[in-house]
Automatic annotation (TrEMBL):
<dbReference type="InterPro" id="IPR011008">
    <property type="entry name" value="Dimeric_a/b-barrel"/>
</dbReference>
<comment type="similarity">
    <text>Belongs to the YciI family.</text>
</comment>
<feature type="domain" description="YCII-related">
    <location>
        <begin position="63"/>
        <end position="135"/>
    </location>
</feature>
<protein>
    <recommendedName>
        <fullName>YCII-related domain-containing protein</fullName>
    </recommendedName>
</protein>
<dbReference type="Pfam" id="PF03795">
    <property type="entry name" value="YCII"/>
</dbReference>
<dbReference type="InterPro" id="IPR005545">
    <property type="entry name" value="YCII"/>
</dbReference>
C-alpha cells in the first residue's frame, strides 16, 4: 500500500510540476534559412552516409600508417572546408560489421559521395574500405561546423 501511495504521489507531483512549466515561445519559421540549407517542408534533406570499414591492406610500418592517418585527417578537413563533409568521426568500440568510422556527406548522390571518399589517402591505400547509404536528416546539420572550431583546443 505504501508503495502505491509513493508511486501515486510521484506521478501527481510530476504532473503538477509539468503543468507549471513556462511555455516556450514557438520558434518562428525562417524561410531564407530553410532555402539556404535546402530544407524541405519538414526541415529535412537527403544526405549520404559513408561507413568506413576495416580495409584489406595490412600496413605494419608505423611511419607509413602515421602518414596515411595524417593524410586522412587533412582530407577530412579539406572536404569540410569545401562543404562536402558535414560529420566525420571514428567509432569508439569494435563492432561485428567492422565499421571504423563514418562520414555524412552533403549530397544525395551516392556517386558523388564515392568520388569524395576516394580522395582519402587511407581509403586509396586500402586501410579503409567503405559502404554507402542514402540518409534523410535535419537540413540544419551543417550549422554545427561553424561552432566546432570554437570548442576545439587541439587537432589530432
Amino acid at each position: 500500500m505504501k508503495l502505491k501511495i509513493c508511486i501515486f504521489l510521484s506521478l501527481a507531483g510530476g504532473i503538477l510540476s509539468f503543468g507549471q512549466e513556462k511555455k516556450k515561445e514557438p520558434v518562428k519559421f525562417n524561410q531564407e534559412l530553410a532555402t539556404t540549407l535546402g530544407a524541405d517542408q519538414y526541415g529535412m534533406k537527403p544526405y549520404t552516409i559513408v561507413m568506413l570499414t576495416t580495409g584489406t591492406a595490412k600496413i605494419e610500418d608505423k611511419a607509413k600508417m602515421n602518414e596515411l592517418m595524417k593524410g586522412h585527417m587533412a582530407n577530412i578537413g579539406k572536404l569540410a572546408d569545401e562543404g562536402k563533409i558535414i560529420v566525420a568521426g571514428p567509432f569508439l568500440e569494435k563492432n561485428k560489421e567492422n565499421y571504423r568510422g563514418m562520414f555524412i556527406f552533403n549530397t544525395k548522390s551516392k556517386e558523388e559521395a564515392e568520388q569524395w571518399v576516394k580522395t582519402d589517402p587511407a581509403v586509396k591505400a586500402g586501410v579503409f574500405g567503405y559502404e554507402i547509404f542514402p540518409w534523410y536528416g535535419s537540413a540544419a546539420l551543417p550549422l554545427y561546423l561553424k561552432h566546432h572550431d570554437e570548442i576545439t583546443k587541439e587537432n589530432p
